[in-house]
User: What shape does this take?
Amino acid sequence: MTAMTETQTDDGFRISQLLYDTRYRSITIQIIALICLLIGMGWLVNNAVTNLSAAGQDFNFDFLGNVAGYDINQTIIDYNSQMTHGRATIVGLLNTLLVAILGCITCTIIGVTVGVLRLSKNWIVQKLATIYVEAFRNVPVLLWIVLTMGVMIKLPPQPRDFRGDDATASMIFNDSVAITNRGVYIPRVLYDAGSWVVVAVLLASIAGIFMFRRLARKRQEATGQILPVLWVSLALLFIPVIVAQLVMGSPVSLEYPELRGFNFADGLHLRNSLIALWIALSLYTGAFVAENVRAGILSVSKGQTEAAASLGIRPNRIMNLVILPQAMRVIVPPMISNYLNLTKNSSLALAIGYMDLTGTLGNITRNQTGREMESVLLLMAIYLTLSLSISALGNWYNNSVKLKER
Amino acid sequence: MTKSVFLGALATAGLLAGAASAQTLAEVQDRDSLRCGVTTGLVGFAAPNENGEWEGFDVAVCRAVAAAVLGDGSKVEFIPTTGSTRFTALASGEIDLLARNTTWTFSRDVDLEFEFVGVNYYDGQGFLVRKDLGVTSASELDGATVCIQTGTTTELNLADFFRANGMSYEPVPIETNAEAQQQYLANACDVYTTDASGLAATRAAFENPQDHMLLPEIISKEPLGPLVRHGDNAWGDIARWTLNALIAAEEYGVTSENLEEMMAGTDNPEINRLLGTEGNLGEMLGLSADWAANAIGVAGNYGEIFEANIGEETAIGLARGLNAQWTDGGLLYSPPFR
Assistant: This one.
């Protein structure tokens, strides 16, 4: 009976087809690969569970609710040593975000500037830009971070040099900023009662600027007349705020740093570790951004420049209105990966004692609680979430600038 | 078929990996070398000398254990660890013994599942400052910038001390002693705090040690000792009794100089049992009869090791203090060798 069936169903399914029929072969291979992958992962998980239980350790995240017991120098939200490891983790995460955001902004500014300069016709400018790019791109970022930190500790004066009549160092910008080897102290903004009015006026001004720009663009499109957007914007930004500040009796004030005791007190303390990490990451990633920008600009054909020039557009307007918008399509995708790299590289903060996520959860908490497995897995999950969020934002922006195909 | 055999073997290996941790002695003997975790460099306790050989007070413990187990104090592979990598290194089995100024605490013993085999240095946390800072007491440190090694008990003590005294401070977290030294000497921090012995050792390495001083306050108890993993009691016993042998040897007057003649036999049965000429203590540990004699033979007894590495004759210049024998008013007290 079985023999009958086999001969009858010549075009039916046979087991050997899984291997020899090109319609099924790729699926077979994929299923086998999937099984191997699952077995491999299962083995890893099993190994971890077996070894943890052999070492008598369980797997739980209760430690996040225990008292941390250690202090963190830079805290964006309120924190003290009696709060939990979970809170310390959040403080670390915010510090990571702070340096990542600052770094992404400055690396973009540096990168775009240098990328354009590298295409300059001026020989010295072009070579300087090349030297910067090659120097930073080809040395590991950890070395730049450590070097920057070393310079920050060794070169600037100590706080005590500012003291006394024979002070060897002095504050700059009318005694408002102190650069020391423990960090930079800058004035801090204090908000007294009534400052909400000033803040509200500021927000209204910003909204006004956007409305004015839209108006100016419409007018230009309709009549060809160009309004002085920059000057009006600046005036809109500053004049109402200053008026509000004066009318309300200066509710928003500045607190200046002052040398008191061992250190400068008051003001805002930008720690060496933050500055060193920020500078090093910005300069390093900026070199990559510069290359992307250069590649993007070169991807726009020279005919575009010539066509714009023949219409009588001035060179800087050609760059801003013709070249860069087209170059953006080439620049944006690799920029996302640069931002991702910068964010992940910020975990090198550990080397200079910047208390980021790796410093708090990945180092001190892991070490004080002995929960290596949990801490590292949680750390990886947080970085993964962070990176995927940056990717999502980047892709959203990319969709808005890419060539619209209709 | 071959594939499934291979995978099966992998899975079995994975299952067995956990069970293998209870035979450290056999592993060390097979390897013919002891893997000992030490600091990344703290002169007097563990640091490579000009010939690249590790030496110091903690290193001597490693060498003594290697001599007891393998009969040769040079069969040690030293693995430098930082304050925050040391426990992972020990828990994962990368090292067999950790001798790295590590404070014996409840949570490390119970929760982290390590076994402290004894105390080789009774210490406390102190503060190192420049003399020209004009500070004479730790209670005057309000607002100071403090360099602190991360992942240590000192980090927690520091937070407690400043909180209990209602003072504020700015912690500068650092990873290694060398980094702390760099920051402190550049005056990026006013104070460096760690165990007083570590501060003395660090200060000894300064260009002008006399410009710096330790503040009188000792803010914590820091019993420092070697440790092993939980779960391998036989190995823990070997480490514990090697340390005790060094301490007992000082108490009974066994030194590196008179070891040979003591080995010929003495009228003191306690010494005879220690050196293996009487009884079978070595056999009980699974070692040769002269295990303790080998351990003492490397660098002498506890007192000799102390004097040679961190004692008053050295640049570090630590007095015995609490670390004297109980007969001299100290805390060192080895249980009997019986």
User: Anything to note?
Assistant: The longest helix of chain A spans residues 22-54. The two ends of chain A are 61 Å apart (CA to CA). The beta strands of chain A are 178-180, 183-186, 188-191, 252-255, 258-260, 263-265, 268-271. The interface with chain B takes residues 39, 43, 46-47, 50-51, 53-57, 69-73, 80-82, 153-154, 158, 160, 181-182, 260-263, 265, 272, 350-351, 353, 355, 359, 363-364, 366-370, 372 of chain A (CB under 8 Å).
